[in-house]
Write a structure and sequence with these properties.
The complex is a heterodimer of chains A (about 140) and B (about 1150). Chain A is mainly β and about 140 residues long. Chain A is about 15% helix and about 45% strand. Chain A has a seven-stranded antiparallel beta sheet with strand order 1-7-6-5-4-3-2. In chain A, β4 and β5 form a beta hairpin. Chain B is an alpha/beta fold and about 1150 residues long. In chain B, about 40% of the residues lie in helices and about 15% in strands. Chain B has 44 helices and 22 strands. In chain B, a hairpin with a 5-residue loop joins β11 and β12. The termini of chain B are far apart. The chains are: A mainly beta (about 140), B alpha/beta (about 1150). At the A-B interface, β4 of A face α7 and α8 of B.
């Protein structure tokens, strides 16, 4: 199913909409992805309040990640006792800073992923060679 | 459409400190990644374009030439600065280097075709030449005017549209895109998408795509490549920081290592969902199919009268010149000229010769000394036109060595002009050809071990003292050899870079091997074109304030443009000055023009054979002096051979030994084939000159001279085994066909092969020999004038001013200290050619104003005393203090004790007199009544200065850099003789293999490449009696290398080598430092201590601290067996006498 097809498919007639917007979980995914990637939508978690705080939950928590070597994507991660299957990768970015200073050096590759209905930021730390959960977005 | 991708936005290291991709490596990588094309878009210039084009052609991928410029603001009407701060976009950091840099938004431009390339050159030149200190920003008007054949991309994250979007102003981004696109032809402007792999990257890309859709503009994906692989990001960060003179993270603070040359797959993944952006790269690359017309020649227009052709004018001039040069004309000269003229016409070079002639004719008319050199001396046309002065027939010089009809390549005539008047020649060139048709050639400055360490250390924010300590004592080697050098070179034994805390500096530095850092200006290379030069090459302001091309000499040659080397030769200036001084003393008629002398004076050759050659052009170095004693030159051909033999090639091939042995009859002259005997008669059967390779090939194998030159070139450059076998087969075949025995032919080829790569161009040596003979003649007959002339034009030659002065003194010339009542700014000759008066220009802290004022005031009347001097010259305190300390005011005035004031008294009086002058405007005579404050009693009552000889000498070395009274080691004569030192002048009388101990102040230390690859240090030292040479072989050097580097004077124990075959030298067994001290324990200085005057030499380690080496000497002496001697300050010299300044 195409990205916008799911949106176009549901009934907008006055008789009302079905309670379930999407027939399956897979039908919902393209819509969520489209919304997450849209440049014109600003997520509440990205907004910074006047006192400088953000709605994003920031954490530095080691997690175990299973890796799809072929696609070069993470497929799931385990947080606490829960396993989070990654439904989609929303975005990838990287940071390499202060390489000359061992105390401040940061070299990470980030994956913003959709899992269990939430958006999570996973990072692979190239210095420690560990996976870290660095943020829970929405 | 496709799965491919082409990078259209890349920065090589020709982006000067903002790009870490080596050009060739980038092209190779692109080819490996299967890219059909690659673009180069360096910041603000095309400096790497030609070599990039050639590398792409070699790698069989299509080159796309482009540039990333800084463009004026397009998204807002009016000036950005007029808006309130909140409405302004923050401009990106400065890009580009030196005077080609600018602050502003970026725009990527690509040339579609040759017209587009020319427009890029014009556009860049317009931007760079707006003014030397104006930012190089491309205006929108110029952009629209020069956009034909050019494709525009909206720029990276520092483009105006991207910046506006990042700042949340999509409206402004749209306006900017709209205005920029209107500067280009429809379809030639693309919105550039760069995915920086940051958290907000996708939002930025989406915003740009949206803006492009709104404006119906196509999009294209790029990666703004700055380094080849992700790991190279560190190099880029370091370069950028050092370029901006900041410490890391530098001016751009880039967030990650994503700006590398990504593969097509990676790029397609990055722009997943926007395939058209990647497809567009292939479309654009297909549209940019440009062919540069490399291999064609483009000559400037010569002055040709109506009805004539360049050839007819050249032929007339050449025949006229031949009549002048050969009286009477010989049939051989006529045949030779006809042959050369025909070839020059056939190759299309008459205009080139005429242009060179115009320039040298101007020099002749203006009385500016010049001489042609290089292979141009092989041509009788050059000789007839007066460009060169060596007779090509007399010296067996061959035209085909200069211009080979089988290989049509740009002729290269180098001319040296009097360096003091070179600017007049340059002015003429600009006036004659027009400012729009002349520019200087650039040089690409690259990193060496030292500069690489400095770049790395500075970027890590180290203080300058630490940076200096890390780069000091590193030899001049390439950066990739730093680790090897640190491990193996003795002078690096305790180098701080070995400290583990500098491991990162070392690791980064060694990766900067030959990285271009900035554009310099060629010493004398000018491009002259028929069309405006900006349509061929981008121009910019050089740091020294001249307009320079962005291309270096190789690029210029590849483009087929004419490069003229208008070089300055200080020896020409010195010869002109010496002639002028001599004629002023003995009259015009008594001094002939030295270049027109018949070179046959035995007195001159005798001086050369004695190795008494200090100051002589090309004959003065320690190696040449050694060769002089072995060769015993007695005719002009010997001088040519001497110049040719002491070169890296002949030295490496060890040609000197057989040459000398055969010359002196120690071994017989043998040649494998009788036909070679005549070709090699002047060099005793040894192939010394490149021209001889041609002659032998012709004589033995029957080659034409053109074929023979092609053979020589093939033997010289990049020979592969297969290629050599092919050449050998060809040579043997031709020889056998002429009835030459196969073994003989093989032996001839073996000799040719062995020497072709090392032979020297005889024409070049012959042209130099004319100048050498002229300088030798002047030194023989006008030694004072010649020495004064050299001192006036320092720095030049092999030796320092200090040594020139000491050498003159050893030849019986009196050296007078500078004096305000006798000295000019420059060095002058006194006592009918028996004395030299030191000029004021070299005195520390002198100003140009004072140099003018002193002689002018003195013409009114001599200075009476210090007060009179101060009142009339208004001399500044530092200059006046220097003059007092150097003795330039000795003997002036009178004290109550009825004697002139001592230097100490004058120094005490100086501030008081300055205060009176400051208070009263003009001080009257009553200032004399000032009683000087009590000073210490005169150390030497016999001298008007009141100073001891030691103190006077120290002041001389410190303030003028010369030892005027005597050599500093003469102070320690007693101590040195007690230590068993043999003086330089006595060495010649000792037998070969004697064990000797010598002493000397270091004049030069050289470690040239040797055939064995071992390091050998050649030391040139000077003691009070003369020069001596010491050789320090690797085993000793490993032990004493650091002593040689860190100290100035040494005691050397070694074995004397004194035989006609090897010459005179000492093979060192041990080198120890030697320090001369005053009785108070202060070390006596051995070199100049402060910077020179405004016209004085800037080189020679002036101002370098000597104290460090003294401290080291102390350490050495406590730890090992270094020597130190304290001299009695009140004692006079053992040798020579102190000479008070004549007032």
């Amino acid at each position: 199913m195409g990205r916008n097809t799911a949106i176009k498919r549901y009934d907008t007639s006055p008789s009302g909409q079905p309670i379930e917007l999407f027939e399956t979980k897979h039908a919902r995914l393209p819509v969520v992805m489209e919304l997450l990637r849209s440049p014109w939508i600003v997520r509440a978690s990205d907004l910074v309040s006047a006192d400088g705080t953000s709605a994003t939950k920031r954490a530095e928590q080691s997690v175990a990640v299973s890796w799809d070597a072929e696609r070069q994507y993470p497929t799931s991660f385990t947080r606490g006792n829960l396993r989070y299957r990654i439904d989609a990768v929303v975005q990838i970015w990287a940071t390499d800073r202060a390489w000359w200073d061992p105390r401040q050096r940061v070299s990470r590759r980030y994956w913003r992923v959709l899992a269990r209905g939430g958006v999570y930021d996973l990072a692979y730390d190239r210095e420690t060679r560990e996976w870290v959960l660095v943020g829970i977005q929405d | 459409m496709s799965s491919g991708f082409v990078h259209l936005h890349t920065h090589s290291n020709f982006s000067f400190m903002d790009g870490a991709c080596p050009l060739e490596a980038m092209v190779t990588r692109a080819a490996e990644l299967g890219m059909p094309a690659l673009a180069l878009t360096d910041h603000q210039g095309l400096s790497g374009a030609i070599r990039f084009y050639q590398a792409c052609k070699k790698a069989d991928i299509a080159p796309v030439l482009g540039v990333e410029v800084v463009v004026e603001t397009a998204g807002l009407l009016g000036e950005e600065a007029d808006l309130p701060p909140d409405s302004r976009l923050i401009l990106p950091a400065r890009v580009g280097f030196g005077r080609a840099s600018a602050v502003g938004f970026h725009l990527t431009l690509l040339a579609k075709d040759f017209a587009g390339y020319r427009n890029l050159c014009r556009l860049l030149s317009r931007a760079h030449l707006r003014g030397p200190d104006i930012d190089s920003v491309v205006s929108l008007t110029d952009l629209a005017h020069f956009s034909e054949g050019v494709i525009g991309l909206s720029g990276c994250g520092n483009g105006e549209a991207a910046r506006a979007l990042a700042a949340g102003r999509p409206g402004r981004a749209r306006t900017a895109l709209q205005r920029l696109s209107s500067c280009f032809a429809p379809g030639d402007f693309y919105v550039e998408l760069v995915h920086p792999m940051t958290a907000d990257g996708p939002r930025l890309v989406a915003g740009l795509v949206k803006a492009a859709e709104d404006l119906a503009l196509p999009v294209v994906a790029t990666n703004n490549v700055h380094y080849l692989r992700a790991k190279d990001m560190r190099l880029h960060d370091v370069l950028a920081s050092a370029g901006a003179r900041m410490s890391l993270p530098g001016p751009y603070d880039r967030p990650n290592a994503e700006l590398y040359l990504k593969s097509p797959t990676e790029m397609r993944q990055l722009f997943e969902g926007c395939d058209r952006a990647c497809d567009a790269t292939l479309e654009i690359a297909a549209r940019c199919r440009m062919e540069l017309p490399l291999g064609e020649f483009h000559f400037p227009s010569a002055d040709v009268p109506l009805g004539e052709t360049p050839y007819s004018v050249l032929a007339k001039e050449a025949w006229r010149g031949l009549e002048r040069r050969y009286a009477p004309m010989t049939p051989e000269a006529i045949r030779r000229l006809q042959h050369e003229l025909a070839l020059i016409d056939q190759m299309g070079f008459p205009e080139y010769f005429l242009v060179v002639k115009e320039i040298v004719d101007f020099a002749k008319r203006s009385g500016i000394r010049f001489s042609g050199r290089g292979s141009a001396g092989d041509s009788i046309v050059s000789y007839a036109l007066g460009i060169t002065d060596a007779d090509p027939i007399r010296h067996d010089l061959l035209f085909e060595r200069f211009l080979n009809p089988e290989r049509r390549q740009m002729p290269d005539i180098d001319v040296d002009f009097d360096s003091a008047r070179r600017d007049e020649v340059i002015d003429f060139i600009y006036k004659r050809f027009g400012h729009e048709h002349v520019a200087m050639v650039a040089t690409v400055q690259t990193t060496t071990a030292r500069s690489a360490v400095r770049v790395a250390a500075r970027s890590f924010g180290m203080p300058i003292k630490e940076v200096n300590s890390l780069s000091r004592h590193l030899p001049w080697v390439s950066a990739r050899r730093i680790r090897e050098v640190l491990e193996s070179y003795p002078e690096c034994r305790d180098h701080p870079l070995k400290n583990p805390k500098y491991a990162q500096v070392l690791e980064i530095a060694e990766q900067f091997d030959a990285t271009p850092t900035h554009l310099g200006t060629h010493l004398g290379g000018f491009i002259i074109t028929k069309e405006p030069i900006a349509s061929w090459t981008p121009l910019q302001w050089a740091a020294k304030g001249v307009v320079v091309s962005q291309y270096d000499k190789d690029d210029v040659e590849a483009l087929g443009l004419v490069k003229m080397d208008i070089l300055g030769l200080r020896m020409h200036s010195a010869i002109s000055t010496a002639v002028e001084l001599a004629r002023a003393r003995v009259g015009e008629a008594a001094v002939p023009e030295p270049f027109e002398l018949t070179p046959d004076d035995p007195v001159v050759y005798d001086m050369v054979a004695r190795a008494d050659t200090v100051g002589m052009f090309q004959l003065e170095s320690s190696g040449q002096r050694n060769l002089s004693t072995r060769l015993k030159s007695s005719r002009f051909e010997d001088i040519i051979a001497q110049i040719s033999l002491f070169r890296p090639g002949p030295l490496e091939a060890e040609m000197i030994t057989p040459f000398i042995r055969r010359r002196h009859g120690i071994e017989p002259v043998t040649v494998p084939h009788e036909a070679m005997r005549d070709c090699l008669k002047d060099t005793y059967g040894v192939i010394v000159y490149q021209e001889q390779v041609l002659l032998v090939s012709k004589a033995v194998a029957g080659f034409t001279l053109a074929e023979a030159d092609s053979l020589r070139r093939a033997m010289t450059k990049g020979r592969s085994r297969e290629e050599m076998e092919r050449i050998r087969g060809h040579f043997l075949e031709r020889s056998l066909a002429r009835g030459v025995d196969s073994e003989v032919a093989a032996e001839v080829f073996r000799q040719l092969e062995g020497f072709a790569a090392y032979g020297f161009n005889k024409a070049h040596a012959a042209c130099f020999a004319v100048v050498s003979y002229a300088s030798a003649w002047l030194r023989t007959y006008f030694p004072a004038e010649f020495a004064a002339a050299i001192l006036n034009h320092e720095p030049m030659g092999f030796y320092s001013s200090r040594l020139i002065v000491n050498d003159a003194r050893r030849h019986g010339i009196t050296i007078y200290a500078p004096h305000v009542n006798a000295s000019e700014a420059r060095y002058t000759v006194e006592d009918d050619g028996r004395a030299i008066r030191v000029g004021l220009k070299d005195v520390h802290a002198m100003t140009t104003r004072l140099l003018d004022t002193i002689p002018r005031e003195r013409e009114v009347r001599p200075f009476r005393d210090l007060a009179d001097f101060l009142r009339r010259t208004r001399a500044e305190s530092p200059a006046c203090e220097s003059l007092i300390r150097i003795g330039a005011l000795d003997g002036l005035g009178i004290t109550e004790e009825g004697r002139p004031p001592t230097r100490d008294e004058q120094l005490v009086l100086l501030p008081e007199l300055k205060a009176v002058l400051a208070r009263e405007g003009v001080a009257g005579d009553d200032t004399l009544c000032l009683a000087p404050a009590p000073t210490r009693a005169p150390e030497d009552a016999t001298h008007p200065s009141g100073w001891s000889p030691v103190r006077r000498l120290s002041a001389e070395l410190e303030l003028v850099g010369l030892s005027l009274t005597d050599h500093p080691l003469a102070l320690a004569t007693e101590d040195l003789e007690a230590r068993g030192v043999t003086w330089a002048a006595k060495l010649r009388d000792l037998p070969d293999r004697s064990k000797v101990r010598v002493v000397g102040v270091r004049e030069r230390a050289q470690t040239p490449r040797t055939r064995s690859g071992k390091r050998t240090c050649f030391l040139t030292l000077e003691d009070p009696t003369g020069l001596l040479d010491a050789v320090v072989f690797e085993d000793v050097l490993n032990r004493v290398g650091d002593v040689i580097v860190k100290h100035r004077a040494y005691l050397i124990d070694g074995t004397l080598q004194n035989n006609p075959e090897r010459g005179l030298a000492i093979v060192a067994d041990n080198v120890q430092p030697y320090v001369v001290r005053t009785s108070a324990g202060t070390p006596v200085r051995m070199r100049r201590g402060v910077a020179s005057g405004p016209m004085g030499p800037a080189l020679g380690g002036a101002g370098a601290p000597e104290e460090a080496s003294w401290e080291d000497a102390e350490t050495y002496m406590t730890e090992a067996s270094g020597f130190s001697v304290a001299v009695d300050e009140s004692a006079s010299y053992k040798r020579g006498t102190s000479r008070p300044a004549k007032s």
